[in-house]
Amino acid sequence: MGKFDWFWKAMGATAERNDKKSKGIVDRSQELAKDFASYSDSDVVAAVRGAVTGAGIVDKPAFLAGLSAASTRTLGLTPFNVQGQAVLRLLEGDVIQMDTGEGKTLVGAMAATGFALTGKRVHLITVNNYLAARDAEWMRPLVEFFGLSVAAVTEASTRDERVAAYRSDVVYAPVTEIGFDHLRDNQITRRSQTVQAPADVALVDEADSVLIDEALVPLVLAGNVGAQQATGQITEAVSRLVTGTDYVIDAEGRNVSLTDDGARKVERTLGIESLYDAEHVGDTLVRVNLALHAQALLHRDVHYIVDEGKVSLVDASRGRVAELQRWPDGLQAAVEAKEGLSVSEGGRILDSITLQALMRRYPTVCGMTGTAVEATEQLRTFYGLHVSVIDRATETKRFDEADRIYATAAEKNRAIVDEIEHLNSTGQPVLVGTHDVAESEALADALGERGVTVNVLNAKNDAEEARIIAEAGDVGRVTVSTQMAGRGTDIRLGGADEAARDEVVGLGGLAVIGTARHRTSRLDNQLRGRAGRQGDPGLTLFFVSLEDDVVVAGGADSAVTARPGQDGRVADSRVQSYVEHCRRVTEGQLLEIHAQTWKYNKLLADHRDILDERRATLLDTPAAWEELSSRSPERAKQLDHLPEDVKVQAARDIMLYHLDTEWSEHLALMDDVRESIHLRAIARETPIDEYHRIAVREFKDLANRAVDKAVETFNEVTIDSAGAHLEAAGWKRPSATWTYMVSDNPLSGSGNSFISGVANMFR
Ligand code: ADP
Q1: Is the C-beta atom of 195 inside 6 A of ligand 1?
Q2: How far is 389 from 89, CA to CA, in rounded Å?
Q3: Does 341 sit in the ligand 1 pocket, CB within 6 Å?
Q4: pLDDT by residue (tens digit) across 90-129?
Q5: Where in the chain do CATH 1.10.3060.10 domains reside?
């Protein structure tokens, strides 16, 4: 491993972070709790309020005892000692590691209440909409016991609901909604339009997933900038073209091009001289080609479906709708136009932010997860966070079997089916974690052929997913999951109502099977953590083949010779440690990629901060008017007759318009620069230095240009008692915006994507 020695050393050291002190506090709070039992509700509240000041918690034992009493009274849950420790660590701003089923929901709510009592607003960041709504409702009585407010923001929340929710003391929301609202708030032109309210603390559930795995996923706000008319015309023109004479499709069906005849027809319909004139090449011609691509190459119900007036992409390799994905904007618009739908045309990226940049905006970040230790180094490097490991309330009775290693993928797959069939014949519930949809379906088919009934989990609906997962512990159940099975949902033995609990305990609890190691041990451990909840018995077992992606990618620089048995199994301990080695290598590679990519993102994040500050100044002060009138005093004098607030708002609208437009262009430019940086970088400089140089220079230009353009507009545009008539002058803000996340990030590698699409691999 060499290069990553420091990483492993750091991990070991921090994992042992000692919590002696907090254990002492918890013990004392236990003593106090006895007295608290006889207190009235208002006495409990008074005791807790007395234990905190604006600066923090001054009497931790009393504070914890009061919170515990409140939990017992409101939720019927008396926190375990370890939960109390976890709360204290969170309040110190750590990421805590607690196993699945150990009660992180309660811990999070208690810590959030603690922060709120010291006057801090908390965003409790959940993995999905479903959990935001569920947890906010579940924990509401506890938070409200102290006279504090709690609310959830989900995808379904209206604007007014969001405005109200964000003003609560504790806000439960998925990270995507928080990010999208932040981006939208950065487009407002009056302070009163703000949706979010500042928060002091982000308490992140499944912290490693949000802070590390998805850290570099950009959330995007795109805007509609008019020009629908033109697209309609272009679509119309293109729809009259005939294949063969007006356009030709290449042999592979991937490209389409206009013939001279076709070009002439389009020119006639659009009433323009030539598509190839300078004025049309950059815009009209591009859009004609997109419309042609949409018409000739993309087919409804093959490449996309139309549902509720919307075009949704079908993911080719998975054969199902890819919810948040879009084509590059022009193409999306072209397909919409072809289908006669309202067009999200001219879609321009107005703004985007990565989850990492979003999280770094909070003064305090803390979090909880079942797997933090393995992410210790990343959490420290990227966020300055410490990891605290919290003991289990009850000893685990889970048995983690050693990996079963096979020479080839085919042999491994056969063994997986055999093992599941065997476990199922005993009645023991089995949860299988696969790496993609194709694999899960192939496995389900193969099991079906053996007469094993399978629930396949295609996570499309959070609530449905949670229900299937919750049922996964019932007798005879086989659940094949396509991704990290329902992080955040509890698998109870004997079904969600635990009716057959004793029987399943007798069978050995839940058996968890991994069909391949993931690229990071954290993902393996998340899957393992589904079994053995709260001292339940359980079994976990991973299958590995020497053809797996992780082994191939991680073993590139070394080799191992092994002699497989008849069934292809390799039982050599050297091979066992070889697989470990390969995985450490891939883990190291991911860390490198993350560190590298963040270097690029960091600068943009810093620029964003500067931009935010500038926006705030323009929104909250008369700075816009002052700047414009000092740059153009004559124009200012002409406007003397207007009321002060009208002038200030007009100047603000003008300044913000240009600032936002320039920023949007800056993002597009820097994206291009990044794509081409390896070509541009001159010999003496490293790409990242070159990138920085360009970014800094461009950002400075941006600032100047935004002001210069604003001055020009200030001089030209009509300004009267109704304000600046920007739209009439062609400076139109997007009339509609939409949000999405870019899904293809380099860190989401599934582990063995090379087998996806092979339908019969389990036979
Ligand atoms: P995690 O998110 O850590 O996997 P949950 O918050 O979903 O765990 O809690 C798992 C289960 O444990 C829930 O059913 C919850 O009601 C229960 N639980 C949590 N804390 C306690 C407690 N102090 N006493 C009894 N049950 C608890």
Answers
A1: no
A2: 9
A3: no
A4: 999 999 999 888 899 999 999 999 999 999 999 999 988 8
A5: 621-732
CA of residue 33 to ligand 1 center, whole Å: 20
What is the C-alpha R_g of the chain?
29
pLDDT for 735 equals: 66
Mutate to test the pocket of ligand 1, among 106, 492, 501, 530 (most ligand atoms within 8 A of CB): 106
Tell which CATH classification among 2.40.50.220, 1.20.1640.10, 1.10.150.650, 1.10.3060.10 matches the domain 621-732: 1.10.3060.10
Q: How far is the CA of 77 from the centre of ligand 1 (A)?
A: 8
For residues 149-186, b (16+ Cβ closer than 10 Å) or e, as one string?
A: ebbbbbbebeeeebbebbebbbbbbbbbbbbbbbbbbb
Structure tokens at 242: 């005939």
Residue with tokens 């001159």: 682
CATH of domain 397-588+749-760: 3.40.50.300
Question: Smallest Cα–Cα separation from 367: which of 108, 688, 731, 1?
Answer: 108
| Whether the Cβ atoms of residue 209 and residue 740 lie closer than 8 Å to each other | no
Cα–Cα distance measured from residue 610 to residue 334, given in angstroms and rounded to the nearest whole number: 36
| 101 Cβ closer than 6 Å to some ligand 1 atom | yes
Instruction: List the beta bridge partners of residue 220.
Output: 352, 740
Give the model's pLDDT for residue 321: 58
Location of structure tokens 């803390």? 366
Global pTM reads 0.80
Is any ligand 1 atom within 6 A of the Cβ of residue 108? no
- CA 380 / ligand 1 centre spacing (Å): 28
CATH 3.40.50.300 domain range(s) in the chain: 2-220+356-389, 397-588+749-760
Architecture of domain 2-220+356-389: 3-Layer(aba) Sandwich (3.40)
Cα–Cα separations (whole angstroms), residue 252 to 243, 245, 297: 15, 18, 11
pLDDT of residue 646: 96
Please tell me the distance between residue 101's alpha carbon and the centre of ligand 1 in angstroms.
Answer: 6
* Residue 730 buriedness (CB in 10 A; 0-12 / 13-18 / 19+): exposed
pLDDT at 671: 76
What one-character-per-residue DSSP string does 18-32 give?
--HHHHHHHHHHHHH
- Report the pLDDT value the prediction gives residue 9, as an integer from 0 to 100: 44
Centroid of ligand 1 to alpha carbon of 13 (angstroms): 29
- Cβ–ligand 1 contact at 664 (below 6 Å): no
Atom of ligand 1 nearest to the CA of 492: 14
CA distance 439 to 208: 25
Question: Known binder of ligand: residue 104?
Answer: yes
Pairing type for strands 510-514 and 537-545 reads parallel
Q: Whose CA is nearest to atom 26 of ligand 1?
A: 77
CB 579 within 8 A of CB 549: no
Which CATH architecture describes the domain 229-343? Alpha-Beta Complex (3.90)
| Phi, psi of 349, deg, nearest 5 | -70, 115
pLDDT at 755: 25
Sites in the chain below the pLDDT cut of 50: 1-18, 227-229, 316-319, 345-346, 743-763
